[in-house]
Every structure is written in C-alpha cells, then in structure tokens.
Design a protein that fits this description.
Elements: E1 18-30, E2 35-46, E3 53-58, E4 62-68, E5 73-74, E6 77-79, E7 88-93, E8 100-108, E9 116-119, E10 131-134, E11 155-163, E12 168-171, E13 174-182, E14 185-196, E15 203-206, E16 209-214, E17 217-221, H1 226-232, H2 236-247, E18 256-259, E19 268-269, E20 274-277, H3 290-298, E21 305-307, H4 314-331, H5 334-356, H6 374-377, H7 381-397, H8 400-414, E22 417-419, H9 421-431, H10 433-437, H11 446-451, H12 465-479, H13 491-494, H14 498-507, H15 516-525, H16 534-546, H17 552-562, H18 566-578, H19 580-593, H20 599-608
Parallel strand pairs: 1-11, 17-18, 18-20, 21-22
Antiparallel strand pairs: 1-2, 2-8, 3-7, 4-5, 4-8, 6-7, 9-10, 10-15, 11-14, 12-15, 13-14, 16-17, 19-20
Helix pairs in contact: 2-3, 2-4, 3-4, 4-5, 4-7, 5-7, 12-14, 14-16, 16-17, 16-18, 17-18, 18-19, 18-20
The protein binds ligand BES and zinc ion (ZN).
Zinc ion (ZN) binds next to helix 3 and helix 4.
Length: about 625
C-alpha cells in the first residue's frame, strides 16, 4: 500500500538521496506583472554518496539558470513537462560528490502562480495600494520557490524581499533587519531559524499596520480594521500561556496575526511567527477566537511535529483540534464545555461522512494520496475522526490527567521531525507500556479507526448536558404551531455560547424545512439577520435556503461575494445550485466575481457548479 510507505506521492523530489537544509530567497515583488523574480539559493546535504541529481518540485516557474554556488559553474538541468496538480519536475545534475551543495536558481513566478493571490488597490480597504498574500499548504510552495515540496523534510530559511514604496512585507519568519532602501525600493530581510516544512513558507505584502496586543504578539491589518482586530484577538497571550502549559515551550519567538483581505480561503493558517486569519473572524465580541486557539496549537502540532506526507495529515489537525478544545475550555466553560465541543466534532464527522459518501476514500483517517490533489481530499475527516480517536484513547487510558502528559511527551519525542501514523502508534504503545500490558488497548479496532472508510468503529462517551439544551430548544421550534410563536424570546439563547447557537441552528439540517412564519419569527427574536458572527450567519442562511425562503437568496449571494472563506462559500453555493429557483443566479454571481476570487476556491466552485472544462 503506497499510501503507507514513507515516500511522498505528492512530490517529485528525492530527499532520501539529497536533502534540502536551507533556503535563501532574493526576490522582487512585481505588482505590475503579478510575479516574484530573482533567485533562490538552496543548500543540500547528501544522504547517499552516489546521488547524482537533485530533483525539485516546481509549478509554472520560468527558470533561466541553475548554478553551483561553490564552484560558480552552471549546472545542467531539465524541466519536465507540466503534470496537472503536481507541476513540473526539475532535475539538476550535480557536478561533484561533495557532501554539501548550494545551488542558485534564477527564476520568475507565473501570474497564475497557485500560491499567490494578487489584489488590486480598489479591492483593498485603503484603495491606494495593491496587496499580495500566499497560501502554500498543502502543495503550493513549489509555485513560489523551486524546492523539495514535501512535509517529510524540514529546513530553515532566510529571505531578502524587495518591494515598492508604501508596501510592508511580512513572512513566516522574524524580521532580521528593518528595511533599507535600494533604488526607490525597500528591502526587508527575514530569518526563520527553526526547521519547518515548505508548506509553512508564507508572504504578505500590502499597506498594513500593526498594534501590540501582548508581550510577544502584534496584530497586523489594514488600518481601517486595526481597532476591531486588536479588540477581537486580545485573548491571544492568555491562550498562548494555556497552550505552553499543555504542550511545552513556544519556540517560534513571536506570535503575530495578520488579518488578510476577505478572499483568503481559510479561517486561519498557522504560518510560523505569523498566523494568517480571515477577516470573517471579526465578530465584534471575541466569539470566534477558537480559530486563534487552533492556530496557536499548530505551533506545536503541525509545525513542530509534522505529518510525513499528506496521507498522515490527520496527525496535524487532530492534535490541534484536541489542544484547541482544551485551550478554549480551560479559559472558559471548563470540562463540560470541552465535552460539548467534542460532541459537536463527532456530529460534524458524521455529517461529513454523509456528504462525502460512506464509500469515499477520503473518509479514511489515512487515505491513499497517490495521484490525489490534497486540496481535493481536504475535509473535516482528518480533524474530527482524528479528534474522536484521541478523545476515545484519552478515556480508555485514564482521562486528561494521564493523557495530557502523554501529549507533551509525544511533542517532545517528535519535535522538528516528520512522522507517519505508524511512528505515532509505536510511540503510543511505548509510552503506555503498562496500560498495554494491562490489556487496556486490547479493545481498540485499530484497522477500523485508521484504515477503514466511514464513521469510526467505536464511539467515545460524551457528556451531553450542553448538547441537550440545544436540541431541546430546536425541538420546541419544530413542535410549535405557527400560531404559537410568541412563546419564543431572545432570553431562550441569551445565555448560550455562540457555539451553542450555531449548534441549535445546525440541528435543523436533519429535519424537514421549517415554515416561513417560523423562520421570520426566529430571525427577528434571535436577531440572526443582524449577527456579526459569520458562523451564525452562515448557518442561518443555510436554514433559510433549506426552508426555500426566496427573500434570503440575495443575502446569501452577498455573503459569498463579500468574503471567500471556503468553509462558507462552498456549501452556500452548493445549496443555491441545488435549488432550481436560485441555480442560475448562483452561476451568474460566480462568473461575475470569479476574477477576484482565490484560485483554490475557484477550482472547487467550478466543479460544484458544473462549470469544469472538459
Ligand atoms: N492548516 C489549516 C488550513 C489548511 C489545511 C490549509 C489544509 C490548507 C490545507 C488551518 O489550521 C485550519 O485548520 N484552519 C481551519 C480552522 C478551524 C478548524 C478552527 C479553517 O480554516 O477553518
Ligand atoms: Zn488546522
């Protein structure tokens, strides 16, 4: 089974023969051409003395020369034909048998570069300057830098980036030296001295400003939203401290956040030193800060301990969900709330299996990734099936008091390494030797959990107190007659955490659509129409579409146009497409705005809206 072998099927590279150890970038940002140009110096150490070639991943790069820095000789190279999803293999012939090599590649990225999103001045809040941001996870780094684009190896990086006046540049690294000016351009110098996988390379360039929000944290954003952002994420340091207690010392120096433009396709991205976040987190009441807890947790699980290939991606996300829920509930709500969050996760898992289909390869915790685009296989499965397994094991092995020290030991064991599911399992058995001997793990259906499709073979126990409150309120709505809606008051949800309100709304998906009268009353008393919480708005709009409530179509279209977070945009577009009344409007809306949308989102929507070529 090649999914289980340690070779990365998502990369052409040969790190087992010669391994990339450091990247130095010297690049200019060309906003007019939508390119980065300059050179990358890559340092390699030989793993096998007989290695003759360095094989690198690239995508849509124009390469003009490859040189050996030591001997200053040009090196022979061959750029293979473009392969869909994976790009072009670059083979560089080595001219000697030295144990270390630094090569310099002159190149330019393409305006279609899949990792970079270029934004016109009129699309920014400030309207004056253009903006650029990257998203390299999972396999887009190769479209920015020729490299061994696989999480199985880690390297450090440095960068000198030239940018036009008025533009601030940030990377997933520490700023080494503040800008100096060269021919009207600024040059910013960065250094990431911790080893990290290529998917964590990141860059932002735009007219952004910052504010301190903690001893090691700044928030960066366009000035128009800086106040809101500073308020929203004020709990960051508290979260970092809980995380350190749970997971060990924070090694990345700073933990800054950058609020990106609305087209950013994810909720958050754990780029080292600088988490990228969507502006849809700016709810006004700090209610969506769980995403920050999640990205903070990745500083250990994902960024220090990393999956070896994308088949083992669950190792990154499940531990991160686990820690996120621990951090959030430690700060507020306690164990009862953690149980509620975990049970919500189980429900999301069941819904996702339902959506993907019982027979989908991607419902496996460890899927076969041969020939698969990691963006295509992305879903809640690695997050929630993985979390359910950890939660299940925690209970089996004796609860948080036993499991939390294990999590810390696991991080200590594998920090700076990339691991497979087998490595994970071996360490678990080793750490819990005593419990294993006592037969505590005998009942675990490992094959079922790790390698079988569908919902897990075993279900953890969950405290259902908080979940029941959500279900109770939903049942009251389902059972009420249309003439008896005055009974509902805002006080029904006044004490709910926003995640309980979300859960209340999500529950309706399993039932027949509610009447328009109920919908209107609910929107009024619970103030859903005016909510600043994007998660609640999302679920509210889904409920409106499910109820076939036509006045909501325009609002749903506006929601998927004003922001581009895939978690929201994809399901709403799909729902609108599945309803004949809104289908054409959804397609027209997508076509009118696709130019401004992020390429990852466009690819997914083209498929969902039946617009795929060929
Ligand atoms: N690293 C992920 C985002 C990601 C995964 C990007 C795979 C590309 C490929 C990030 O940490 C994440 O999980 N974000 C979630 C946050 C949530 C689970 C709290 C998101 O974007 O919604
Ligand atoms: Zn994550």
């Amino acid at each position: 089974m090649s999914a289980l072998s340690s070779r990365d099927p998502s990369s052409f590279s040969n790190p087992d023969e010669i391994r990339m150890e450091h990247i130095h970038l010297n690049l200019t940002i060309n906003f007019d051409k939508h390119t980065l140009s300059g050179h990358a110096q890559l340092t390699f150490v030989r793993e096998k003395p007989e290695a003759e070639y360095i094989i690198l991943d690239t995508r849509e790069l124009t390469i003009t020369s490859v040189r050996d820095v030591g001997s200053n000789e040009d090196l022979e190279y061959e750029l293979a034909e473009h392969v869909v999803t994976f790009g072009s293999k670059l083979t560089v012939k080595l001219n000697d048998k030295e144990p270390e090599h630094t090569i310099e590649i002159e190149y330019e990225t393409s305006p279609e570069c899949s990792a970079l999103h270029w934004i016109r001045p009129d699309q920014t809040l400030g309207k004056k300057h253009p903006y650029l941001f990257s998203q390299c996870q999972a396999i887009h780094c190769r479209s920015v830098v020729p490299c061994q684009d696989t999480p199985s190896i880690k390297c450090t990086y440095t960068a000198n980036i030239r940018s036009p006046p008025g533009i601030k540049v940030l990377m997933s690294a520490l700023l080494e030296e503040s800008e100096k000016t060269e021919e009207g351009h600024s040059v910013s110098m960065f250094r990431q001295s911790e080893m990290m996988p290529s998917c964590l390379l990141a860059i932002v360039a735009g007219d952004i400003v910052s504010r301190e929000i903690g001893p090691r944290s700044k928030i960066w954003a366009e000035r128009e939203i800086l106040d809101r952002a500073a308020y929203e994420f004020a709990e960051t340091e508290d979260m970092l401290q809980v995380a350190e207690e749970l997971l060990g010392p924070y090694v990345w120096g700073r933990y800054d956040m950058i609020v990106l433009p609305p087209s950013f396709p994810y909720g958050g991205m754990e780029n080292p030193c600088r988490t990228f976040v969507t502006p849809t987190l700016l709810a006004g009441d700090r209610s969506l800060a769980d995403v920050i807890a999640h990205e903070i947790a990745h500083s250990w699980t994902g960024n220090l301990v990393t999956c070896k290939t994308w088949a083992h991606f669950w190792l990154n996300e499940s531990y991160t969900e686990f820690s996120e829920r621990k951090i959030v509930s430690d700060l507020k709500g306690g164990e009862k709330f953690r149980q509620f969050l975990a049970l919500r996760g189980w429900k999301i898992l069941c819904e996702t299996v339902d959506e993907l289909g019982e027979d989908s390869e991607f419902t496996k915790l460890v899927p076969n990734m041969d020939g698969v685009d990691p963006d295509e296989s992305f879903s809640s499965i690695p997050y929630e099936k993985g979390h359910a397994l950890l939660f299940y094991l925690e209970q089996l092995l004796g609860g948080p008091d036993v499991f939390e020290p294990y999590v810390r030991a696991y991080i200590d064991e594998f920090k700076y390494k990339s691991i497979t599911t087998q490595d994970w399992k071996d360490f678990l058995f080793n750490y819990f030797k005593k419990e294993v001997a006592e037969g505590k793990l005998d009942g675990v259906d490992w094959e079922g959990w790790l390698y079988k499709k569908g919902v897990p073979p075993q279900k953890p126990n969950y405290d259902t107190t908080m979940m029941e409150e959500c279900v109770e309120l939903m049942n009251r709505w389902l059972n009420a007659s249309d003439d008896n809606l005055k009974q509902f008051k805002f006080s029904n949800i006044a004490d709910f955490h926003s995640l309980e309100t979300e859960q209340f709304l999500s529950g309706f998906a399993d039932h027949d659509p509610i009447s328009h009268k109920k919908l209107v009353r609910m929107g009024d008393v619970y103030k859903f129409k005016r909510t600043g919480n994007s998660e609640i708005k999302f679920r509210w709009l889904k409920l409106c579409i499910q109820a076939r409530y036509e006045p909501a179509i325009s609002e749903a279209l506006k929601f998927v146009t004003d922001q581009g977070r895939m978690k929201f945009v994809q399901p709403i577009y799909t729902d609108l497409y599945d309803w004949e009344v809104s289908r054409q409007r959804a397609i027209d809306n997508f076509l009118a705005h696709r130019q401004e949308m992020h390429n990852i989102t466009v690819i997914k929507l083209e498929r969902d809206l039946g617009l795929e070529e060929n």
